[in-house]
Amino acid sequence: MATVTASSDATITVIGNEPLLERLRCDTCNGTLSHAYILEGRSGSGRHTIARHLCAMIACHNRPNRSPHEADDDQIGMFADEPAPARIIPEGAPLPCGECPACRKVIEGACPDIHVIGRDGKATIGVDAVRFLRGDVLLPPNELDTKIYIIEDAETMTVQAQNALLLTLEEPPSYVLFLLLCDGTEALLETIRSRAPTLRTSPIPDEDIRACLKSRNRRVSDEDMAAILLRADGCIGQALTLTDARAIKPILKMRELTDEFIGICASRRADQMTVLLTKFGNKRDAVTDTIGMMDLAIRDLILIRHGESVMLKYYTDPESALDIACRFTTRTLLRIHNALSRTAESLEQNANVRLALMQLAVDIGIL
Q: pLDDT-based confidence at 5, cuts 50/70/90?
């Protein structure tokens, strides 16, 4: 277990997820926070940033309902036995303020009352880590009126670890807040889920991701931006990672294969299809990802043939996409879509990669 590590960011900036943030802001100001929350979302969706933002809201010296008596021994913790009367929060009042000493410590990763529990390079979070936590929660916070535990990859906790945590979740000290971060809640015990409200992150609109990348001086070409937005699929963290040239290179290769595949399907050149199949390689995960991207492109072509205004996922220029779509009949596009779906299913069932790709060409009717 460790305290939150320092961050290179000067502030905590959350992109999107306004309803989720407003709920946490109101609960913080009104003293109605739960003792535990599950923050569910895909990797890169902002779970860690939201958790750190909540920590700063709780720590902020300018929190509307904070009083100088909160840190008294008899009144420690912001979780009252009875909720405080609802307050009207001033419109536009910043929370966290980002300027007070407590906010700065959270932002800089120097707050001793915020602790992170993770896998430490292991496949799971074992019972020993949770047992250590159960002993640590008995010690009151050092500086804040709340002691916060962020459990990363909470879905990887073993059953024994979850059962050990449950004993603390049922009757936690009044000053403790648990934040369980996970990709999905399916692996969490029902008894854990029933004691912690689940807050789910929402996909970030592409225009917000574009604005964020621009504000951070991540300069990318239009082609690269299209690849980043497609791969990120609403996750700001994924988009930021993909601005690295080494990270985006395999995505651009997938787009090259997809564009070539679409062109060959239109021209129906068997010799070109044979050459293309050799470019896929034999790595099952990479081939499966490429098949998925091809299916997104076909999906765009099907939709744009039958609708004037559709949200394209692969193509960036509707006119160019329509020109390509007009090279196919709807029946042909549907046949390609079905063939791609069968190929993806075969790969998931551990079929031979080369044979699956050959069967794809046969199903399309080119070989």
A: very low
CA 176 to the chain's CA centroid? 25
Residue 211, token pair as written in the block:
């604005």
How far is the CA of 233 from the CAs of 82, 242, 286, 288, in angstroms?
Answer: 41, 12, 17, 17
Q: In the chain, what is the straight-line distance between the N-terminal and C-terminal CA atoms, in Å?
A: 57
pLDDT the model gives residue 79: 56
Q: Quote the tokens at residue 197.
A: 């409200």
Cβ(27)–Cβ(35) below 8 Å: no
Tens of pLDDT, residues 125-165: 999 999 999 999 999 999 998 999 999 999 999 999 999 99
**Residue at 91: amino acid letter:** E
| Residue 291 near residue 343 (C-beta atoms within 8 A) | yes
pTM above threshold 0.85 = no
Q: Which two tokens stand for residue 18?
A: 């306004």
List CB contacts of 364: < 8 A, sequence separation 6 or more. Answer: 265, 335, 336, 339
Contact (CB, 8 A) for 35 and 169 = yes
Among 360, 333, 322, 328, residue whose Cα is nearest residue 344 = 360
